[in-house]
Amino acid sequence: MGTLGFLLPFRMCTHQCQDATKYAIDIDDFVKGLEAVFQGKATILNRMRLSCMFYDKDRKKIGFGDDEWQVMNEIALHRGSSPHLNTIDIYVDGQHLTEAVSDGVIVSTPTGSTAYSLSAGGPIVHPSLSAVVLVPICPRSLSFRPLVFPSSSSLTLCIGDRSRAAAGVSMDGRVSHVLNPGESVTIQASPYPVPCINRSSISDYGDEQPGEEGVGPGKEDDWVRDINNLLQYNATFRSKALLRYSGKH
């Protein structure tokens, strides 16, 4: 469920917690959340996913039958261990957008915009939006900037015939395919979103401190709290650690 806590806001520290009391509180927190859901007190956020289909040079599907790969965060085409840049033709709704010469390309959901896409310089997108984010990985051109498309768009990434290397494909961090020149992947919004509980809609923990991960008050929208607590959004360079060693007590 990720590593920062955007998708699993309930604290479950079974493998880390040494304090039995704290562990009991965490379990109680989780149980209260489930009870609120069953009582109809929770609101949900439908987080969109991506549907990915792979094709060979002749536009025949690669895989078993009509396999569609469902992606929660992102699909990334990358050069892997090759020393050469990939050449990737990008099409939007059948129209040629550009030829990308880069280490790779990321296509992400709003949920994935705080993952690999963010590390590659992509924008942070609110998860309630229906959008598809296209982000280059170390492009050769300085003018190749990230783009945001409506979820109705269909993106096709085709490994160019001039590409000097095949492209590795990873989906949600898992390596799945290798695309050779002429092969492609078509990416669309999936009709099957993932419903996620808004913790703040069922939380009545007035004593909890807002500085903890996945904890704090809100108005049925955890996102603003989370980008501050989990990503340290717009935090200053002068961290608390520096203040501790600056001689101020």
UniProtKB/TrEMBL annotation:
<keyword id="KW-0418">Kinase</keyword>
<protein>
    <submittedName>
        <fullName>ATP-NAD kinase-like domain-containing protein</fullName>
    </submittedName>
</protein>
<keyword id="KW-0520">NAD</keyword>
<keyword id="KW-0067">ATP-binding</keyword>
<dbReference type="Pfam" id="PF20143">
    <property type="entry name" value="NAD_kinase_C"/>
</dbReference>
<keyword id="KW-0521">NADP</keyword>
<dbReference type="GO" id="GO:0019674">
    <property type="term" value="P:NAD+ metabolic process"/>
</dbReference>
<dbReference type="GO" id="GO:0006741">
    <property type="term" value="P:NADP+ biosynthetic process"/>
</dbReference>
<dbReference type="InterPro" id="IPR017438">
    <property type="entry name" value="ATP-NAD_kinase_N"/>
</dbReference>
<dbReference type="GO" id="GO:0003951">
    <property type="term" value="F:NAD+ kinase activity"/>
</dbReference>
<comment type="similarity">
    <text>Belongs to the NAD kinase family.</text>
</comment>
<feature type="region of interest" description="Disordered">
    <location>
        <begin position="201"/>
        <end position="220"/>
    </location>
</feature>
<keyword id="KW-0808">Transferase</keyword>
<dbReference type="InterPro" id="IPR017437">
    <property type="entry name" value="ATP-NAD_kinase_PpnK-typ_C"/>
</dbReference>
<dbReference type="GO" id="GO:0005524">
    <property type="term" value="F:ATP binding"/>
</dbReference>
<keyword id="KW-0547">Nucleotide-binding</keyword>
<dbReference type="InterPro" id="IPR016064">
    <property type="entry name" value="NAD/diacylglycerol_kinase_sf"/>
</dbReference>
